[in-house]
Specification:
By secondary structure, this protein is an alpha+beta fold. It has 19 helices and 23 strands. It has five domains: 125 residues, 3-Layer(aba) Sandwich (Rossmann fold), CATH 3.40.50.2300; 143 residues, Beta-Lactamase, CATH 3.30.450.40; 84 residues, Beta-Lactamase (2-Layer Sandwich), CATH 3.30.450.20; 71 residues, Helix Hairpins; 168 residues, 2-Layer Sandwich (Heat Shock Protein 90), CATH 3.30.565.10. The strands form five sheets. Strands 8-7-6-11-10-9 form a six-stranded antiparallel beta sheet, sandwiched between helices. The radius of gyration is 51 Å and the shape is elongated. The relative contact order is 0.04. The C terminus is likely disordered. The structure holds adenosine-5'-diphosphate.
Length: 655
């Protein structure tokens, strides 16, 4: 064994020499002499002595050197030699950190005994430190193992949706960490009121499959009822079930949303070791993971069921559904939509919509800005079918299109229009005859007051019917596309003209007519006659339906190369449930009873707007007024102006 090293610092160098040569070295110690406090400190740092012997005279009165050496080498014994010992000084030295005090006469034996005793104490202290460190290391290791197991369970809970494998990991970890003989995860079957084994470790498969335990009459059931954990270790084995005894057990509740759904159970069947409180804390943490895993699996199952339901609905529904994200990648296209646009459903998802669908009218919808939605469009397929497409922008999803096949409705509508047109035609001649004869009546003889009044009434009624028939025929013509020619003109002039024509009517109702026209508007390419009809109808309606003293506002501006015309009023508005129908022929909302009308005005307006490839819609809060918005594009005239589009010829020739 290497010689123990002793550091000496004496004021009396002769004495230091004697102690070194005559006392310590012969006893096998290696002595290091120092001559001053500084050299002692430096040397101590360098050689790390096993013991330090110091003469008090060098360090009095407050023993700063002892303090410094002890601070740097707290485990090294420090012996103090003093010639004049007082109780006070001894106490001060001991407080400063001295381990022993030597006084004259300096007998060899006394010095050696003191050094030896100090070294023995130091060794004992070192042994104790080593043991303690080992014990702490072991406990740290155990802690690390526990943390490792917990993180393993945590990882498996978050990384997997396979509930069987997660719960097996949970039970295995609980058994492993507690060193138990066996463990199982019992879940409550609410219908039968029994606990069954969902996962197990060291429990025979057969038992695990057939195990059933009533909640009412079992220890595990008690945990379910109380929601509190249970530890048992007694002198005699505890019965779990018939012929199933354990020496000690730990039951930890599995809680989900403040409800106990099961028990994590750990048993020692052979071992007599009890389970500790700290093990209980650990297993509780593991049980929490199990509860989370079960809850996750339940939520996943629910979501999966909902997803399947939704999928089934989308697959079976007769309407077409297309969903694209905001980058125009296809998210969903149900079989109806796939069939309509010849898309193979299996390869569709994730691809750009314009690579799958080539119908220009449909593709145009995807290019529109979000402010255009929700919108409705009719799209005619190659096979002649007509689909009514409704597009809605859902910010967190994308664009959702639903499409209904309205071919039949369109056909019936066409037949109805044809019929109405024919009847209107046929009615016109007899009405003209009636009017003619009514006008002649006055000429054939004198009429009394009553007769004149009756004639006036007949004239008014015939005029009303004629107006209606003219509107119907007009509508027929517009719908057939058999329309007046389009030309370039200033839309704002037409707006001003219409306002002037209707000003008198508005003034008669004491209404304010507000006109807002943006400066420098470009000319529009449209049919002036038809656009004036639109303006007349919309502004006329606003004046007609708004109460005396109200206001009507007309706003015209451009946005994104489109004309936006808005006619607003603060009249009665339109009931929400009736808003979708007001553009239908003959539809008069329930708010319109006091005003006269045919219910054809807005149908004509809509047809005209659509004939100009524009859009019209209404926004209205009942009781607060209505705003009709018309959007017309700033189209340029075709290079060679056509008096009629080929499609219009086709429709016209059907008449
Ligand atoms: P009408 O000949 O009845 O005015 P329209 O086709 O022009 O027929 O309008 C259809 C219905 O829409 C009206 O009967 C009325 O109920 C409603 N309507 C139209 N414009 C307005 C408006 N500015 N304010 C309130 N309701 C309106």
């Amino acid at each position: 064994m290497a010689a123990k090293q002793v550091l000496l610092l004496f004021k009396d160098q002769a004495l230091q020499d004697v102690i070194a040569r005559a006392v310590l070295q012969p006893a096998g110690y290696r002595v290091h002499n120092s001559s001053s406090a500084e050299t002692a400190v430096q040397l101590a740092r360098k050689i790390l002595p096993h013991c330090i012997l110091l003469e008090a005279k060098l360090d009095e009165p407050d023993f700063p050197l002892i303090r410094q050496l002890k601070r740097q080498h707290p485990a090294t014994p420090l012996l103090l030699f003093t010639t004049q010992i007082t109780l006070e000084k001894s106490l001060a030295a001991l407080r400063a950190g001295a381990d022993d005090i030597l006084t004259p006469p300096m007998k060899t034996q006394v010095v050696l005994q003191a050094v030896q005793a100090a070294l023995t104490r130091q060794e004992e202290f070192q042994d104790w430190t080593t043991l303690e460190t080992r014990r702490n290391t072991q406990s740290l290791q155990r802690r690390l193992d526990e943390l490792d197991a917990l993180s393993r369970v945590g990882r498996s809970v978050t990384a997997s949706l396979d509930i069987d494998s997660i719960l097996s990991t949970v039970v295995e970890s609980a058994v492993e960490l507690t060193g138990a003989d066996e463990g199982s995860l019992l879940l409550l079957d609410r219908e039968s009121g029994e606990l069954y084994i969902r996962a197990a470790k060291n429990i025979g498969e057969e038992i695990a499959h057939t195990f059933r335990m009533p909640v009412d009459d079992s220890l595990a059931g008690e945990v379910i009822r109380s929601g509190e954990p249970l530890l048992y270790s007694g002198d005699s084995p505890q019965k779990i079930q018939t012929a199933y005894f354990v020496q000690s057990l730990m039951y930890v509740p599995l809680r989900s949303h403040s409800e106990t759904i099961g028990v994590l159970s750990i048993h020692n069947r052979q071992k007599k070791d009890p389970f500790s409180e700290s093990q209980l804390t650990l297993v509780s943490a593991i049980a929490d993971y199990a509860a989370i895993a079960i809850e996750n699996a339940r939520l996943f199952d629910n979501t999966e069921v909902e997803r399947r339901k939704l999928n089934a609905i989308l697959t079976k529904v007769v309407d077409g559904v297309i969903v694209v994200d905001h980058e125009q990648n296809l998210l969903l296209m149900n079989p109806t939509a796939c069939a309509a646009f010849n898309v193979q459903s299996e390869v569709a998802a994730g691809q750009k919509i314009n690579q799958l669908v080539h119908h220009p009218d449909l593709l145009r919808i995807f290019d529109l800005k979000p402010s255009f939605f929700p919108l409705r469009r009719e799209v005619v397929l190659e096979d002649g079918r007509v689909f009514n497409i409704q597009a809605t922008d859902i910010p967190e999803v994308g664009l959702v299109l639903t499409m209904q096949d309205i071919t039949q409705i369109k056909e019936m509508d066409r037949l109805k229009s044809d019929f109405v047109n024919a009847v209107s035609h046929d009615l016109r001649s007899p009405l003209t005859a009636i009017m003619g004869y009514v006008e002649l009546l006055e000429r054939v003889g004198p009429l009394n007051e009553t007769q004149r009044e009756f004639i006036q009434r007949v004239t008014l009624s015939v005029q009303n019917v004629t107006g209606l028939i003219n509107e119907l025929l007009d509508l027929g013509r517009i719908e057939a596309g058999f329309d007046t020619q389009k030309e370039m003109f200033a839309l704002e002039h037409l707006v001003n003209l219409t306002i002037e024509e209707l000003r008198e009517l508005a003034e008669s109702k004491n209404q304010a007519l507000i006109v807002e026209i943006a400066p420098n508007l470009p000319p529009i390419y449209a049919s002036p006659t038809r656009i004036q009809q639109v303006l007349n109808n919309l502004i006329g309606n606003a004046i007609k339906y708004t109460q005396v003293g109200g206001w009507v506002r007309v706003n015209l501006h451009t946005e994104d190369r489109q004309f936006i015309l808005q006619v607003s009023d603060n009249g009665p508005g339109i009931p929400v449930s009736e808003q979708p129908y007001i553009f239908d022929r003959f539809y008069r909302a329930t708010n319109a009873t006091q005003a006269t009308g045919t219910g054809l005005g807005l149908a004509i307006v809509k047809s005209i707007v659509e004939n100009h490839q524009g859009r019209i819609w209404v926004d209205s809060v009942p009781g607060q007024g209505a705003t009709f918005t018309v959007v017309l594009s700033q189209k340029k005239p075709p290079e060679k102006p056509l008096s009629r589009q080929p499609e219009q010829w086709e429709k016209a020739s059907l008449e």
